[in-house]
């Protein structure tokens, strides 16, 4: 019997042909840690007796979660990371460079068919370029830093084929929210998902990243997006599934009828169609994160806000996913449009996504957000409510001061 993409990638990184359910010892192509997990990882590495990482070219550190440092304690942790990176000759991205996942993608640190581990749950984002990338704990990552290897149980695979055409104002975010709602937050636990079909083939890299990024919200180990229709600035050999590969499930979805999808408080699988929840008042709007902080996302917001002013009772906060995203949005006039509409720009980084700093909501406030998680307290206040959706949804809500269908705000 043939192999799925993940079985092939794991086989290529180990000495045996891998099948779902096997335990494989694999060589890792790249490891990554952030300012939330990096200091713990470095300590664990030293506690294991680590002196020199197995390959300093295969490790990346990023200061993005609380960046610039909001207090002395975090400033000390940032310094610890800088010192370690210096001693070991490891590439470190510092304050303002951007979110770890965006930097790894922007700078082509990951390529199709590679196997990457990150001490961050959204490492699965790199499935957008057909890599098997997944999140691990700090101690596991420290082990890889010593040896360049880890063990992995080969996941089973679900195949999702997406056909039809997305309606105006309906995006990759709506699609993945719909799937998270359908599966539930544990619906694909420890499984890989292969995404194929004409909808994927027409998607930009930015949109493919949205899909791969949120598979963790269904508990999946990896989301592997078909590379058809994707142009990359380098040559590569795509890893393809065999025609007789075994899938635990194959799902066909026609996306043509899908309306804007929103995750309502307090879980990313608590999905409603926009028409069910229109008119809820909001006080804060956030566009950013490794899910939706890219150029395409800022463009979608600018399309809605150009020449207009946001509602006077709303704070619209934008954190570009990377410095490059910010610079591109600056040079094409997008920053100007959004700033004139009343948006406040934060440095490139995670920003308010995880509630560490910058934009913690007040009591009883409702937030429209382009991020990926809306658990109670996620943005730093348990007495606030987060509504997750696309950047077009967030911009429309910021404009009207309440949840509204982005379709009505789009001129195209
Ligand atoms: C803080 C960090 C450990 C966490 C993660 O692993 O995902 C964060 O990035 C998140 O999005 O919740
Ligand atoms: S942007 Fe949010 S989800 Fe993404 S890595 Fe940062 S904290 Fe995690």
Automatic annotation (TrEMBL):
Chain residues that bind [4Fe-4S] cluster: 290, 350, 353
GO molecular function: 3-isopropylmalate dehydratase activity; 4 iron, 4 sulfur cluster binding; aconitate hydratase activity; metal ion binding
Pathway membership: Amino-acid biosynthesis; L-leucine biosynthesis; L-leucine from 3-methyl-2-oxobutanoate: step 2/4
The protein's enzyme class: lyase
Superkingdom, taxonomy of origin: Bacteria
Domain Aconitase/3-isopropylmalate dehydratase large subunit alpha/beta/alpha: 7-226, 276-401
PROSITE patterns linked: ACONITASE_1
The enzyme's E.C. designation: 4.2.1.33
Keywords, alphabetical: 4Fe-4S, Amino-acid biosynthesis, Branched-chain amino acid biosynthesis, Iron, Iron-sulfur, Leucine biosynthesis, Lyase, Metal-binding
Cofactor(s) essential for the protein: [4Fe-4S] cluster
Cofactor note: Binds 1 [4Fe-4S] cluster per subunit.
Subunit (UniProt): Heterodimer of LeuC and LeuD.
Role: Catalyzes the isomerization between 2-isopropylmalate and 3-isopropylmalate, via the formation of 2-isopropylmaleate.
Protein family according to the UniProt entry: Belongs to the aconitase/IPM isomerase family. LeuC type 2 subfamily.
Protein name: 3-isopropylmalate dehydratase large subunit
Organism: Sporosarcina ureilytica
């Amino acid at each position: 019997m043939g192999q799925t993409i993940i079985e092939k990638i794991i086989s290529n990184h180990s000495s045996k042909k891998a099948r779902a359910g096997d335990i494989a010892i694999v060589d890792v192509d790249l490891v990554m840690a952030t300012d939330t997990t990096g200091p713990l990882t470095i300590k664990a590495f030293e506690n294991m007796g680590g002196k020199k990482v197995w390959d300093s070219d295969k490790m990346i550190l990023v200061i993005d979660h609380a960046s610039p440092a909001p207090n002395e304690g975090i400033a000390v942790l940032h310094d610890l990371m800088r010192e370690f990176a210096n001693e070991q000759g490891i590439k470190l991205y510092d304050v303002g460079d951007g979110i770890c996942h965006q930097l790894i993608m922007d700078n082509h640190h990951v390529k199709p068919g590679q196997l990457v581990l990150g001490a961050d749950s959204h490492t699965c984002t790199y499935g957008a370029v057909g890599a098997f990338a997944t999140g691990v704990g700090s101690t596991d990552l420290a082990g890889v830093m010593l040896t360049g290897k880890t063990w992995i149980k080969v996941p089973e695979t679900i195949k999702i084929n997406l056909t039809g055409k997305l309606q105006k104002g309906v995006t990759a975010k709506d699609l993945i929210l719909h799937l998270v709602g359908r599966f539930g937050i544990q619906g694909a636990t420890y499984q890989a998902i292969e995404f194929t079909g004409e909808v994927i083939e027409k998607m930009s890299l930015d949109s493919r990243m949205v899909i791969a990024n949120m598979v963790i919200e269904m508990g999946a180990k990896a989301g592997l997006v078909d590379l058809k229709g994707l142009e990359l600035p380098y040559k590569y050999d795509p890893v393809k599934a065999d025609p007789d590969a075994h899938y635990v499930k194959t799902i066909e979805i026609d996306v043509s009828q899908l309306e804007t999808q929103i995750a309502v408080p307090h879980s990313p699988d608590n999905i409603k169609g926009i028409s069910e929840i229109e008119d809820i008042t909001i006080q804060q709007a956030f566009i950013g994160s490794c899910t939706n902080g890219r150029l395409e996302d800022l463009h979608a917001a600018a399309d809605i806000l150009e020449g207009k002013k946001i509602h006077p009772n709303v704070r619209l906060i934008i954190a570009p996913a990377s410095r490059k995203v910010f610079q591109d949005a600056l040079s094409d006039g997008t920053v100007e449009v959004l700033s004139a509409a009343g948006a406040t720009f934060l440095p490139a980084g995670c920003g308010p996504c995880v509630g560490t700093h910058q934009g913690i909501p007040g009591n009883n406030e409702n937030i429209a957000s382009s991020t990926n998680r809306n658990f109670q307290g996620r943005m730093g206040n348990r007495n606030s409510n987060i509504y997750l959706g696309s950047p077009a949804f967030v911009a429309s809500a910021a404009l009207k001061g309440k949840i509204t269908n982005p379709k009505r705000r789009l001129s195209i």
